[in-house]
Amino acid sequence: MTTNQREDRDRPESPQNSSPTERVLFGAIGAGLIALSLRQRGTVGVLLAAGGALLVAGAAMGQGLGEAVTGVRRTQDDQIKVEKAITVGLGADELYTFWRDFENLPRFMDHLESVKVGGGDGQRSHWVAKAPVGTTVEWDAEITADEPGRRIAWRSLEGATVPNEGAVEFRPAPGDRGTEIHVSLTYRPPGGTLGATVARLLGEDPNIQIEHDLRRLKRLLEVGHIPTTEGQSSGRKGAMKAEAKMYDNRRTS
Amino acid sequence: MKAVVWQGVNRMGVETVPDPQILQPTDAIVRVTKTAICGSDLHLMDGYVPSMVHGDIVGHEFMGEVVEVGPEVRKVKVGDRVIVPFPIACGKCWFCQKGLTSLCDNSNPNPGLAEKFWGYSPAGLYGYSHITGGYAGGQAQFARTVYADANLYKVPDGLTDEQVLFLTDIFPTGFMGAEHCDIQGGDVVAVFGAGPVGLFGIASAFLLGAERVIAIDRFPERLEMARSYGAETINYEEENVFELLKEMTGGRGPDSVMDAVGLEAQAHGLLGVADAVKQTTRVLESDRPHALRAAIMACRKGGTVSVPGVYGGLADKIPLGAFMNKGLTMKTGQTHVHRYLDRLTGYIQRGEIDPTRIITHRLTLDEAPHAYHIFKHKHDGCIKCVLDPWADPKDHEPTPAPQAQG
Ligand SMILES: NC(=O)c1ccc[n+]([C@@H]2O[C@H](COP(=O)([O-])OP(=O)(O)OC[C@H]3O[C@@H](n4cnc5c(N)ncnc54)[C@H](O)[C@@H]3O)[C@@H](O)[C@H]2O)c1
Ligand SMILES: [Zn+2]
Ligand SMILES: [Zn+2]
């Protein structure tokens, strides 16, 4: 890992990301939620307590909601940049080959509906992504760098609603650990960083999205399936289903 | 089918729920012939493990007969008699390849939740809250098991259900607890907690060459059982445990100490009260680490503290100064059950250990609420309950859960 990859961060690298004020504030809100939860019976109480617990724990560990909810990282020109990595127990060549066929991307990138490769000697592709509230966004992209077994980079062409670019690097992990996949995505969301903040409140947080996407990729390639509990039996009825769904990323029954 | 369902803090009930189905091609459905209640289930019942939801089917110690397999299951066959390890291995990831199956990278469907609490996500576990996957458990007539080929372990002919049932969890857990003690010739091992895990810890410590084992608990029948496994015992309500351990080891202290109690340890004194009050919030302190504190203090210089006891969140006033300045080592984890199965089955086959000795209660699934009650309060000499999901329900409707009580 080289250090200059991260220098576009606009705040110092530190395990304690939230400011003292933020910590006190969120700590207090957390304590308040707990106090409230003690007076609420049943599900609501549990949820409040759980939320409160996370806030208090976060405040204690210096990871405020600032990071969790509004910590959108900006580049100099008001773009959003996300960097994530995962280690997969396969060789770099296999991973490169899988990724290089962009039509595979929707198999693990949840927000992508489809990618069609075509045009520009196979350097061009057409992407359709799911957008908030059931709409879609489409754009064309081209490959800007292609080093077999090592790195692929791409960027959207002129006219994209959400101009974006991405790069993936495959680095051998030490020992028998497989290959590290390092992904970096930069995009300019409609409405700027404010739009991004709203989007992540609606559950479209790009950081989390990429993290989940990479995990799906790992599970798909290592095991062949993404584990699920969707459709399993339970003694749940009515409102309780919603609570379980919340824990199970809306999958459970 | 009938299943034991978590109905809120302190309420386990038996309900009729839909039969499980194959959901993925690597699944298998097991008709459960025996299932047991574990100390970990008590932590779930009591609400100390976050993310339980009303309606969750519990139970992670279960075995039975395979009645259906998914299209991609190769090794496991319909009709196989199997035990189901409680942690779920994908069999493919780096951790599974290293035998660290309770740390599997791929089997927890809710890794994000686990990462919020613990930084990284361990394996999915059956019937053990949504933070470890939300998988329906095996205190039921049928259970859906996943990655069947990597997990279901075929029982050798000639062994009864009761002989092999504890291979699912507590025998390997006691064994890993002892293995973590890094026992050398002449070692004295102290074991806090003489419940099922502690008892298997004691037996395993001897199997691994311990010179002496000293068990600490307060229930006479459990201490008696510990003695029957060859341990010396201390009743912590009657003795000063630290002083007595010191004296019994010639002033050196035990070479290694096991915490086989976990997050609901009992304690006297001001600190005990403070922990108990904080723990009722489930937030200010989720775990009561008395046994762990005592274990750290009691351990000799340079010794090892092995922690099979389960902790879920945050705990206060761990004597880190003692831990650091005495140069201790701590080893812990949910058990990597799979890696011990061949070896431990061998001990059972050769008669070197009789796991059935700890069973004090054999009940029907309908009696689960009662079983939970006596196991939690250690009433009626209860050490381990085994439930038969198909036994005659004795002509009664499923037993309602007892009303919430402390
Ligand atoms: N690591 C794993 O994979 C794993 C697997 C199974 C169980 N466990 C854990 O092991 C622990 C024990 O399980 P169990 O089934 O034996 O439960 P149990 O409740 O039957 O046994 C706990 C014993 O500890 C005793 N105890 C309580 N406070 C004590 C104290 N301060 N000092 C000494 N003894 C004390 C109790 O009297 C009881 O006999 C639990 O925390 C359980 O969750 C861990
Ligand atoms: Zn258990
Ligand atoms: Zn695995």
From TrEMBL, chain A:
Query: Which intervals hold domain Coenzyme Q-binding protein COQ10 START?
Result: 92-212
Q: Which residues cross the membrane?
A: 44-65
What ranges does the record list as Basic and acidic residues composition bias?
1-13, 240-253
Q: Which Pfam families match?
A: Polyketide_cyc
Region of interest (Disordered), residue spans: 1-21, 228-253
CDD domains given for it? Answer: SRPBCC_8
Name the UniProt key words of this record, in alphabetical order: Membrane, Transmembrane, Transmembrane helix
Instruction: Tell me which PANTHER family the record gives.
Output: POLYKETIDE CYCLASE/DEHYDRASE AND LIPID TRANSPORT SUPERFAMILY PROTEIN, POLYKETIDE CYCLASE_DEHYDRASE AND LIPID TRANSPORT SUPERFAMILY PROTEIN
Name of this chain's protein:
SRPBCC family protein
Species, as recorded:
Deinococcus rhizophilus
From TrEMBL, chain B:
Enumerate the UniProt keywords alphabetically: Metal-binding, Oxidoreductase, Zinc
GO MF annotations, alphabetized:
oxidoreductase activity
Q: Which domain of life is it from?
A: Bacteria
User: What Enzyme Commission number(s) apply to this enzyme?
Assistant: 1.1.1.-
Tell me which cofactor or cofactors this protein depends on. Zn(2+)
Residues annotated as domain Alcohol dehydrogenase-like N-terminal: 25-156
Q: Where is the Alcohol dehydrogenase-like C-terminal domain?
A: 196-265
State the Pfam families in the record: ADH_N (PF08240), ADH_zinc_N (PF00107)
For this protein, the record's InterPro entries field holds: ADH-like_C, ADH-like_N, ADH_Zn_CS, GroES-like_sf, NAD(P)-bd_dom_sf
| Family listed | Belongs to the zinc-containing alcohol dehydrogenase family.
This protein is called what?
Answer: Zinc-dependent alcohol dehydrogenase
